[in-house]
Automatic annotation (TrEMBL):
Pathway: Lipid metabolism; sphingolipid metabolism; Sphingolipid metabolism. The chain crosses the membrane at residues 74-93, 113-141. Keywords: Membrane, Transmembrane, Transmembrane helix. It is a multi-pass membrane protein. It comes from Dermatophagoides pteronyssinus. GO terms for cellular component: endoplasmic reticulum; membrane. The gene is LOC113791385. PANTHER family: LD18904P (PTHR12560:SF0), LONGEVITY ASSURANCE FACTOR 1 LAG1 (PTHR12560). It holds the Pfam family TRAM_LAG1_CLN8. This is Uncharacterized protein LOC113791385. InterPro entries: Lag1/Lac1-like, TLC-dom.
């Protein structure tokens, strides 16, 4: 059986987005709005950079079209630095402890149940970030050793890649 390669990561997207929605709902229910603000701010930065890079590549300016792959590489490596800093340093070492402390001091409901739910959801987001980091590192390794296009920044530029799956 052959499937489109990006379908392998779809369950991870689903888990990430459902967990984020649950964190936002939990923050709203407990009047802990810091959860939502932090999630949107922290995880929005690298997403904005990725979307900006896609828009930039789509511009039909000659200088951009001539240096298309170099621009992709530069923006992708900036994205990776931002990703690693936000998702593997700031989030687990600064944000999670601060959110847990803030929530433990300010929850209006029983901390024991909601606190564990909050910690579980925050850790799920961190685990998903680790999985995506592995995926990103594989892309970096493959692009460093051969000069392939960075297809993930502009999927429409390439033919769909199919992989064989065991039935």
């Amino acid at each position: 059986m052959f499937v489109y390669a990006s379908e392998n990561i779809t369950p991870i997207y689903f888990i990430h987005h459902m967990t984020t929605i649950l964190l936002l709902i939990l923050g709203y229910m407990t009047k802990n709005y810091l959860n939502g603000i932090v999630m949107i701010y922290l995880f929005g930065q690298d997403t904005l950079l990725m979307q900006f890079s896609k828009c930039l590549i789509k511009l039909q300016l000659p200088i951009i079209q001539q240096n298309r792959n170099q621009i992709r590489r530069i923006l992708f490596y900036i994205f990776v630095l931002l990703w690693l800093y936000n998702r593997l340093y700031r989030y687990p070492l600064i944000i999670i402890p601060d959110l847990v402390l803030f929530a433990s001091e300010n929850f209006h409901l029983d901390w024991s149940i909601l606190g564990y739910i909050l910690i579980l959801l925050l850790l799920i987001i961190f685990m998903v970030s680790l999985l995506w980091t592995i995926f990103i590192l594989k892309i970096i390794i493959s692009t460093l050793f051969d000069q392939k296009n960075l297809y993930h920044l502009d999927v429409q530029d390439i033919e769909p890649q199919y992989i064989e799956m065991d039935d």
